Amino acid sequence: MSIQTPYLLFLGDAPDALAAKVAQGIRDWRPEFAVGQFRLEGCRADMGLPDMTLAEAKEAGVKTLVIGVANRGGMISQAWKKVLVQALEEGFDLASGLHNLLRDEEDLAAVARATGRTLHDVRVPSVKYPIADGVKRTGKRMLAVGTDCSVGKMYTAIAMERVMRERGMKASFRATGQTGILITGDGVPLDAVIADFMAGSIEWLTPDNEPDHWDLIEGQGSLFHVSYSGVTLALIHGGQPDALVLCHEPTRTHMRGLPGYSLPSLEDLRDTALAMARVANPACVVVGVSVNTHAMTPADADAYCAEVEARLGLPTVDPVRHGPARLVDALAAV
Amino acid sequence: MSIQTPYLLFLGDAPDALAAKVAQGIRDWRPEFAVGQFRLEGCRADMGLPDMTLAEAKEAGVKTLVIGVANRGGMISQAWKKVLVQALEEGFDLASGLHNLLRDEEDLAAVARATGRTLHDVRVPSVKYPIADGVKRTGKRMLAVGTDCSVGKMYTAIAMERVMRERGMKASFRATGQTGILITGDGVPLDAVIADFMAGSIEWLTPDNEPDHWDLIEGQGSLFHVSYSGVTLALIHGGQPDALVLCHEPTRTHMRGLPGYSLPSLEDLRDTALAMARVANPACVVVGVSVNTHAMTPADADAYCAEVEARLGLPTVDPVRHGPARLVDALAAV
């Protein structure tokens, strides 16, 4: 089920660093998985890793070639194909979060069958998930919930994991989207799960654990985003969180992709998400606020966080700008 | 896409009336679709329709043979198969809500291909639904929301449709589960839709309509049922309801299938569902309460409804026992 590590990061002909953000995520959050990079002519991205041939990667113990770059026009080009086929022949698995699936490419599917290698298309579930039973699980769980989509929920959870591990706490980031799955090698592609099994897939992802272990569950969507709110509620009820972190991007003028919809206040998010979370776990609390201040000046960012902290009475930080330590402190106090 | 009507209702070897509840639903709610019934030896269900051979059904203009009975042990028996194959050969389509799909039966699939007939497995979507865009649609929409699963949401909506049509109002029951889809010949099997497309499938199901037209949307699950709450929220946000009817079964001791979970109060349901609905439609109101008093005495049922009505200040009826007229009155006043 899980993707075998370590990885060779395939950057292809990435026109810029942004196109290779999956590779960057692996490099940032699981550097121990990122042994080398493979670049085609014209590639403008660089992870600062050794450029390796397939043979060198094999020698270095690589198990999987991960496509760490978005493809242009939704096509897997012939230039890519040549490398991917060769990688299968050399004994590597392939992993991809592309919309167009590796398994749907006849040549890749045939070579994978012939060589006995695995094609990991992390956008589609590979597991038959159960229906959620709501039974209380041991261990602790934190879920990042947002006022909107794409406000920093994944970053918040994975950055908290790092600090917790540095402190010797037991913590596991639990990926629910394709980037997170490629970074960690495992997870649930929740947006592609069949409706009836959404909450069950999150129970499956965050099973019984040691009493002092924290699952840091990657949030998806928002209770207030009409396109994806059902996915969010399934996460809240399947995740049974003990703690919520509220995530927000203050400069957004409307919900992502929904021009007619304004963002809820952090108070609305707090009250709504907490009430819903307490259906599954009456002990759930909100521990802090994570603000994405990327579009703000340092002074504005600090002032905004201070204002929210005073207003909500919760530690409020931008985990990129300030680090997530204060959120971890709050979690440790639960 | 839609199932062609009218129907011949296949009752098979139903051991009792309950096993044929899909057929009963069609008979009750779309009698104009139910031309005849087909029973095998030993069948103990009877819809009070003419027993017809396939030839007689053909003569009577039937287009589709609908499997109106649950099968035992999850197998389509040889006794059934013989009839189903013959029906395809005679030019009928087949429609089924069984868990095991018609299309997965090699013989049925092959005969359907050879005869050019359609196998409608209504448990699985046949449409590529869009992602919800949240744009306000014309026409009006009512959604039934429940304190729990299986508390009478489908019955409430379809019973209201009948009364509204009798009054000359424009009303369409919109099915979101397999029984409702077989009854009406169309709908969205929401529990089988991919997470990202749930809300979009409901937008698709309830498109722009005349200003005085009501869609009566079949509810699913409950915001308070941790296994299925995400499906419910997608219905609320995709449906953009103008009106909610609260559905409740007062004798239930815990959430269906979740022994550790008690039911929310009607007040909790009202406040939570309304707040969520107003994200998509700020004008949404709660118009009434539908109580399933099946397990109560007439006196207890009346007393309970009166008590709820006084407490919530909303018309409160059991649509089976009292009829849904007062809920329709409330809807007409919106």
Secondary structure elements and pairings:
Two copies of one chain form a homodimer.
Chain A: E1 7-12, H1 21-29, E2 34-39, H2 54-59, E3 64-67, H3 78-89, E4 93-96, H4 106-115, E5 119-121, E6 140-146, H5 153-166, E7 170-174, H6 178-184, H7 198-205, E8 213-217, H8 229-239, E9 243-248, H9 266-280, E10 285-291, H10 298-312, E11 316-317, H11 325-332
Parallel strand pairs in A: 1-2, 1-3, 3-4, 4-5, 6-8, 6-9, 7-8, 9-10, 10-11
Helix pairs in contact in A: 1-6, 3-4, 7-8, 8-9
Structural features, described:
Two copies of one chain form a homodimer. Helices cover 34% and strands 16% of the residues of chain A. The model of chain A has no long low-confidence stretch (mean pLDDT 96). With 334 residues, chain A is an alpha/beta fold. Chain A has eleven helices and eleven strands. Chain A has helices spanning 21-29, 54-59, 78-89, 106-115, 153-166, 178-184, 198-205, 229-239, 266-280, 298-312, 325-332, and strands spanning 7-12, 34-39, 64-67, 93-96, 119-121, 140-146, 170-174, 213-217, 243-248, 285-291, 316-317. In chain A, the strands form two sheets. In chain A, strands 7-8-6-9-10-11 form a six-stranded parallel beta sheet, with helices on both faces. In chain A, strands 2-1-3-4-5 form a five-stranded parallel beta sheet, sandwiched between helices. In chain A, α1 crosses α6 (178-184). Chains A and B meet through α7, α8 and α9 of A and α7, α8 and α9 of B. Chains A, B: It holds the Pfam family DUF1611. Chains A, B: This is EBNA-1 nuclear protein.
